[in-house]
Every structure is written in structure tokens, then in C-alpha cells.
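Lab meeting prep.
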Amino acid sequence: MNTYNLGYILEMLLPVIGICLPAKKRKYGLAKAVAIISAGVFVGISTSSFLINLGYKEEILSAIEAGSIAFGYIFAWFFLIWVSVILAIFNWIEVTKQEAVYLFAISYAIEHIFYCIRVIVEYLSAGRIAEHEIVQYILTIEKPFNIDADTASGLIYGGTSAMFPSAMTLAQTWNQDLALEYGTMIGNEALLGGADGWYAPSMNIHRTPFSGRNGEYYSEDAFLSGAVASNEVMGAASKGMYTYIKHFAFNDQENHRGDRDGQYSIATWLNEQAAREIYLLPFEMCMKAGDVELNYIEKQADGSLANASKTIRATQAVMTSFNRVGATWAGGAYGLITGILRNEWAFDGLVMTDNANTAVFMDGYQMTEAGADVKLTSIPADARYDFDENDPATYYYARQAMHHMLYIVANSKSMNGLAPGGTVKDGTRLTTTVMRAVTIICLLLIALEIYKIFRLFKPTAKKLKKLQAKAERKAAKAAK
């Protein structure tokens, strides 16, 4: 649950609440109530989000999660009755068109003001998190700051926010050149916005039309999925971007996949022929798509610097899935990750889990022992991994995981601008500064919009006097 979701719920609920109020209380009373509710909820949720980002106490997360469930039920109930009831409400209750427009405008503005404030809070949180002890270890090896971004139809952050048609639409063109161009466009977006990795392309199979993620996947045909996905990977990699091809593997459904309390992921049973000929084929095609050229600056024997280049595999990262392969979680399946991915396909890049914030069955040691590397989580407690540097096995697996991560960073656009002898200095990108400025300006404009709407309900004495004078002149003119 976050401030944007809450704002979206308020956008739908508040107009109806306001419309159902008695006519005398519908104006100033609603505006005042909206302001008080918005301020109180924002303070509570933004403070909790800030503390969670800093890694403080699972109790906060549990409380917010409980609230999320409650709000989820409210939202689901309200959405079902929205279309059928709203027109009836307007007809049954004395509401002018102007009042209805004002009420919806207030709630719409509140949604966006919540979003803008959340963005600002996240900026402030990011600055504090950079001081965390864990980050200090990263600084000792001068690892650049990296941004990995969703989704399959574009970069929701770390780009220009441009979105493209779905993966299914692209696959239905049967146009490999277009797929290559799409991947190249994603790479260009990343050069503009700062993203280094892309949580895509997604290439699970359409086993049924009802799968919750079919919009991200290409087809029920394995070869078509692999042909389109591998070209996207090549295009993005040509711009120095590493792509997390996902979800590896056999991710057949979203329902009960394991990202809710009490779920321990769905068990997927299949034979080796089906696995290799259908579900693994798109991933294999990406692994064998070919290499891209990497340009860099090389130090010569005499100390001078010169341009150099080498080729690297286009596919540099993999995201594992929630589901189990048989009874074993896919992200901790040795035969899948080490046996096929590492050994058969000679993959030496990074293997990361899907969102691990809620997946209690994703054991960190099992993951590294299977040959995978990192967990996708923003909550330290959800790493579910106790590092013991005195244990030879733990130390070895952790060292391998760090090697894989640093390898893909060193061979990506993260190193643009660096040369031998240079020093990594992470700073705010120009695009980020512009986005922050635009966010603040929009926040002020939205606040002004709310004020203007409020004044339409309750004009100032000066404005009221002008309106009365105007009405009197109009009445006098009509009398003549």
C-alpha cells in the first residue's frame, strides 16, 4: 500500500461521499474534511514508508500490510458498484453538474498531489539510505550506482516514461527488425534517463488466455517468443544495457504464485521434453542470440590511453520465477540454474529472483548454492540470508555472486565516461534534476488547483461582492 494507491481510492470514494452529504454540508464541509483526511493519511503513510526504506522493523510492514488488505477490500467492493450506482446517485440526489465536476476535480487533484509528495519523500529517503552501512562496502570497490527498471512495455523509471504497445502486439507483427528496433529504443531511453538494467523481456508461454501476465508475454509459441525476445535483448544490449530475461522458468500462472501471506508458490510438474521444447526454448534462444560490441578505453604499455573494443554476450542477466519446479523453488533449483543455465548454456552473468519482499520460501543460501546471485528486495529482513564469512561454503557462494554482479556492471553503460585511473563519482543526473523540478512545480500547480476549486465553493468576500454586482447588472439589463 502506498500513497498513490490510497490517492486512487480516495479519487473514487470522495466524490460519492461528498455527493451523499446533505446539500448544506456538501460544500465547505467536504473541502475541509478532504484536507484533514489527506494531511493525516499522508503523514502516517509517508512516515511508515520512510522507516521501512531504512530497514526499520517488520512490525511497521505488518501494520501497513494489514491496512492494505482492508483498503483492498474497500476498493474491490467500490469498483464493482461504481458504474452501476454512480449515475443513479446523480439522478436521485439533488446535485448540479457544476457540483459534480468540482467534487471529482478535488478527488482527482488529491490523487496526484499524493503521488507528487510520495516522489519527493522517496528522493529524501534515497539520500538517507545512501549513508547505510551496507552501501559503504560497495563504495570501497567504487561500484557505480545502478538503476534497474521495469517493465516489458517501457521503462517506468530511469527513462523518459514513454510506453509502447504490449509484447503480444509486437509478436503479432512477426517482424524481427521491429523487435530489434524496440530493444534499441529501450536502450536509448536508458541513456537519457539513467537506467542500466531492464526487468524484461518476459517470455513465459501463454498456456491459457487467463494468465494474469499474458500482456507481458509474447505467445503460446516458443519459437516466436524466443525470436522476438532475443532481438529485443540485442537491441538494448547494443546501447550498453543488461536485460533480465524472465521469468526463469515455467511461470504458468499468477494466482497463488507465492507472493501473498500463507502461499508457498505453485508447484509446476512437467517432463523434460516439454521443458526443453517449449518453456526453456525462448530463454535458450536469447542465450544463443549472439554478441554485441563493447567499446572502452584501454591503458597502453607506455601509459597512454587508447580506444579499444571487445564482444560480450548480449544476454547478461536472468530473473528467476516464484513457482516451483516440481517441489523445488525455481530460484533455488540447482539443476535448472547451474545444470542448464550455467553449465549447458555457459552463462556467466547475474541471476536474480523475482520480487522477494513477500516470498518467505525464497531462502538466500539455497539460492546461492543453486548458482543464483541476488534477491530482489528492498527490505533487509526479507533477504533471509545470514552471511558467515568464516564458513567456507557461504563465503565461496557469496564471492561468486558478487563476481557475477560486478561483471555485468563492468560490461554495461554504467561505466560510460570512465577511463583507467578514473574515479567513480555518482551524482544527480540532469534528467533527474529536471524531473524533480517538474514534480515540485506540478505539486504547486495542483495545490493551486485545489485552492481554486475550494474558492468556487466558498468565494472570498471580495469575489462574492463582485459576483453579486455582476448579477445585479445582469438583472437590471434583463429588466429593461
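Slide two material, second protein:
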Amino acid sequence: MNRKIDRSEHCSIRSRIEKGVPVMQIAKEYGVSYQAIMYILKKAGGKKARETKKPSDDDLYTMYILDDMTQTEIAQKLGVVPSTVHRWINQAELEKESTSAQMPENLIEEYEYGGCSAHYLADHYGFTYDQVRYWLDKHGAKKRTKGYQPRKKPATFARKGQREREANR
């Protein structure tokens, strides 16, 4: 995306914007960033890109919650950048259910004390690695250093204090 657009192409880009072609599509075709296209439009006298009609809150709800589309997928479908979709979702006060409510209570113990890797826990409980990593980070689980070798099977877990007392015997 480091290609420089010739001045001879500026007219073509402006006319395509006026015809309603999404800025993101034009940027991809020319191999440049969204901002590069917007800069060309700004230099041409402050014209703005075609205003994208914001979908209704119901349409956003359908795409984001019911169809479980990501913000990037919605952006591509509507021809806008993901930050625009993020803003619309915040304005509509839409939130997906937190995965933390679904996570097993002993996940942190299994990770920190049982030596299970985040990949193992994701496979074991049927979550994605990113969901497990997010949940562990959110709840302050200690990150491991390189070279740590986790056990393959989770151990039986007792309370933290009980484990320390047994270790001191």
C-alpha cells in the first residue's frame, strides 16, 4: 500500500466517488490506503466521499449480534472502514455477550497452578484460543516466560492456601 497515485488518476478517482463507488473499494483497486484516497478528495476542493447511509440499529443488531459478523466483515459489506462500524455499534449500544460468563471458574487455576497452556484449555473446553487468552488477561492471570513446559493434563485443584500448606510439610 505504498503506491503513489499519479495526478492523472485523480480525476478518475473523483468521478468514481461521485458515482457512488465505496472509498475502500477504490483504495484496494489502486493499492493505496483509505486515507490516501480521502487526501486526494480533500485536495480537490474539500469534497467528501459519498456519505454512507448508516444502517438502522435493527440492521446493525441483525448483522452484529444475530448473524455474528465481525466489525470488519460489516465494514466490508457496507464499504466503510471498521472504525465507522465500531462507532455505529457504540452509538446503538450493542454488545455481544461476554465470553467470561461462559468460562469455567477454575480456568485460571488450571492455567496458573495446573500448568495447562491456553491452547490446551481452548481445545479442552471448546473455546477459541483468543477467547481463553482474552479471559486470562482480563482476570490478571500471570503470563508465562518462553521455555515454560506445561503439563498435558490438568491436575486436581485444591484451594491455594491448602496447596501451599501441603507443600510446606
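Talking points for slide two:
The two ends are 63 Å apart (CA to CA).
Residues 7-43 form one domain.
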